Amino acid sequence: MVAFGKKLKERQIQEWQGFYINYKLMKKRVKQYANQIEVGTQDRRHVLKDFSRMLDNQIEKIVLFILEQQGKLASRLKKLREQHDALEEQPEISQITELREAYRAVGQDLLKLLYFVEMNAIGLRKILKKFDKRFRYRFTDYYVKTRANHPYSQLQQVFKHVGLGAVVGAISRNLHELQDRQGSYLSIYDPPALPLQDPVVDAIKAAVDRLTYSTNFLNFLAQHALIMQEELPAPADERVDEEKYHFMSLLLNLANTFLYMVNTYIIVPTADDYSMSLGAAATVCGIVIGAMAVAQVFSSVYFSAWSNRSYFRPLIFSSIVLFVGNAMYAMAYDMNSLTVLLLGRLFCGFGSARAVNRRYISDCVPLKIRMQASAGFVSASALGMACGPALAGILQTNFKIYKFTFNQNTLPGWVMAVAWLVYLIWCWISFKEPSRDTEEPNASGSVKIENGALEEGKQPLLITSEEKQVDDEDPEGDGSEEAPEESRQPATSFMSAYRLLTPSVKVQLLIYFMLKYAMEILLSESSVITTYYFSWSTSTVAIFLACLGLTVLPVNIVVGSYISNMFEDRQILLASEIMVCIGILLSFHMIIPYTVPQYVCSGLIMFVSAEVLEGVNLSLLSRVMSSRLSRGTYNGGLLSTEAGTIARVIADATITVAGFLGQSQLLNVTLLPSLLICVASIVATCYTYNSLY
Questions:
Q1: What per-residue confidence (pLDDT) applies to 492?
Q2: Where are the alpha helices (DSSP H) in 90-188?
Q3: Do 612 and 555 meet the contact criterion of CB atoms below 8 Å apart?
Q4: 99 near 83, Cβ under 8 Å?
Q5: Which of 259, 287, 609, 687 is the most exposed place for a label (fewest CB within 10 A)?
Q6: Torsion angle of C-alpha atoms 515, 519, 521, 523, degrees rounded to 10
Q7: Which stretches of the chain score pLDDT less than 70?
Q8: With contact defined as beta carbons under 8 Å apart, do 238 and 206 qualify?
Q9: How far is 296 from 559, CA to CA, in rounded Å?
Q10: What is the DSSP letter of 627?
Q11: CA torsion, points 229, 234, 238, 244, in degrees to nearest 10?
């Protein structure tokens, strides 16, 4: 790993060297400002004015060069258009081939210009972030809002690459027309858009995708998965991604994610009845549901480590263990054994391959579709969460074959056992193990940090992996570009990973713990609570839980496409925490009789707010986490998974322990810890971000 200043120097296009941002000079100037303010020779107001003027000059230099190069490209395209028109009258195959190659040459030069813009955009984000960090002042917000919203904005040229889209369109359209279409008169503008198989156009689109950061539904979903794009992948890396990619293998990973979420929630509506049928109390359902999470705490670690060497073998092992676990869960009824029931759920937890699913998308899916794959991962999880309880509501029958009973308690186990058996066969036949770099098996992690870009109305300049890397290597901003080799290595244990966590990251993990705890309390005790207060049937509980699960994607559409464009992420974060707290408060059973509208409305407020909070929290977490936690076994994705899983374990244990006080006290006793943790997370959020800004 190389610090950004050195990387900028190494990757500069030599003939354009004088037009790049002078990152080294600006970094030294920030240090000078700090020293001058410290000794009292300069006031803050003059520093802000001087630094703004310096940034304006740097941006103007970059923008004028971009416009000059755009003009040259446009002039070349104009001449090629004239040649194209002449060929339409007298077409010759050799001249068409030459013209196509000429357009591709323009495309290659456009790629150089896009890379130039990308490097300068990263430099600007980094120097603004360094200034904010050194002076504890939100200069970035002031500078971007005043410059970006101005009618003569030059900053938009850098962050929105204004004008380059027209050049991309001209190259794509003309190459499309020159391609043999077998008599088709459709263009790239006619629906449905016809795919153009040209490596130059594909490379241009990939470069534009890296350069553009738009907070939309797809990106918001991908942040839930904590699977992000790399900042500046080399062309060789992109070719390796293409070689590793196998669509059916990706589909199998998403199917594994979906089935595991179905497996997790399919037993929730019937777990209390199953426990009572084996002679235990209804509240033992907390232990039954939570046993899977207990095992997942350990399975996440060994699956994460195993994915350093293989993807196929962990998925096969996961399928076998889940098949056995579900079969044991189903047979526990006829064996009249609570022990077998719990062991079955533990086996299911030991088969949790979500770490492998994340890692596969991160390492083996090409950059240009990684965002869609990440969104698919979250969508599969949400769909599984909704389908699990819904499926349990359908399995309302009772019959016996030989010595095996099939009823609402055992059918979830039997159905999932068959599903995992089918998946095992499918995976064995269709999964393709990707090629691996044997020299550095730990080089890729399950968390890749995505580059940010300008967004009006929200925190516009996002922290990227390159920026965090420089903070790790040069925390004092003293101009040093090198760091000891050991300071760049990934964490090798949970303790070393914990030592890399900053206060803001710890707050984000606390929030994640809180929301998972609150959601688990709501979902796991729903059957017991609704049976005690409202005498709901299993089908009614299943419908309620399925409806909660179905809110996930619509809520993410609203937040990802609209709300996140109107407010800063930290504002949404705090508002969501407060709404979760309100939902918890409304759920308490006080003096008045407890009613269905109170339970449903409070549960809906709590669940929806927690879903919003999860997306925004993981988005912020991906930006503030050390780059050393983006690789290796003990990565940021594993830490967040462990925090959420431990929260679920504690929540399910709380339900069982509270059951000793009686079902009349269960609701309030389990909600009280949720309320305390929620209040603590709100206080920590306010304190942390007030101290930072």
A1: 74
A2: 93-135, 139-148, 155-159, 164-178
A3: yes
A4: yes
A5: 687
A6: -170
A7: 1-10, 136-138, 141, 144-145, 148-165, 179-198, 205-244, 367-368, 371, 436-489, 560-561, 564-565, 622-632, 689-693
A8: yes
A9: 30
A10: G
A11: -90
Query: Which of 354, 280, 275 lies closest to 311, judged by CA?
Result: 354
Length of the chain in residues, anyone? 693
Contacts of 35 (CB under 8 A, 6+ apart): none
- Give the CA distances from residue 620 to residues 462, 473, 500, 604, in Å, rounded to whole numbers and listed in that order: 9, 21, 16, 24
Could you tell me if 49 and 149 are in contact, meaning their C-beta atoms sit under 8 angstroms apart?
no
- Report yes or no: 184 and 520 within 8 Å, Cβ to Cβ: no
Contact 428, 580 (CB under 8 A): no
pLDDT of residue 165: 67
Q: What is the maximum span of the chain, computed from C-alpha positions, in angstroms?
A: 91
Beta bridge partners of 401: 404
CA angle 570, 576, 582 (to 5 degrees): 145
How far is it, in rounded angstroms, from Cα 551 to Cα 614? 14
Residue-wise pLDDT for 646-674, tens only, equals 999 999 999 999 988 888 899 999 999 99
Task: Measure the CA–CA gap between 207 and 161, rounded to whole angstroms.
Answer: 12
Give me the pLDDT at residue 2, please: 47
Tokens 């979902």 — which residue? 523
Q: What is the pLDDT of residue 43?
A: 77
Please check whether residue 26 is in contact with residue 127, taking contact to mean a CB–CB distance below 8 angstroms.
Answer: yes
* Cα four-point dihedral sign 317, 323, 328, 329: positive
Structure tokens that stand for 627 in this block: 């780059």
Alpha carbon distance 200, 169 (integer Å): 13
Instruction: Give CA–CA dist 410/394, Å, rounded.
Output: 13
Distance separating alpha carbons of residues 57 and 24, to the nearest angstrom: 15
Give the residue among 600, 589, 588 at the shortest CA–CA distance from 544. 600
Which residue shows structure tokens 């001449």? Answer: 79
d(CA 96, CA 94) in angstroms, rounded, equals 5
Given the structure tokens 């869960």, which residue do they identify?
329
| Whether 521 contacts 651, CB under 8 Å | yes
**pLDDT tens figures, 350-394:** 999 888 888 888 778 876 677 677 777 878 888 888 899 989 989
Q: Which helix (H) or strand (E) holds 652?
A: helix 636-658
Measure CA of the first residue to CA of the last residue in the chain; give whole Å: 30
Which residues have C-beta within 8 Å of that of residue 314, sequence separation ≥ 6?
303, 306, 307, 353, 356
In whole angstroms, give the CA distance from residue 361 to residue 47: 45
Structure tokens at 236: 């060789």
- Find the DSSP H helices in 455-502: 465-473, 494-499
Amino acid at 593: P
In angstroms, the CA 452 to CA 212 distance is 8
Q: Which residue has tokens 């009249």?
A: 336
Q: How many Å is the Cα radius of gyration of the chain?
A: 28
CA 153 from centre of chain: 31
Spatial separation of the C-alpha atoms in residues 517 and 354, rounded to whole Å: 19
Structure tokens at 204: 């241009």
| Helices (H), ranges, 474-567 | 494-499, 503-524, 526-534, 538-550, 552-558, 564-566
Question: Would you call 598 exposed, middle or buried from its count of C-beta atoms within 10 A (0-12, 13-18, 19+)?
Answer: middle
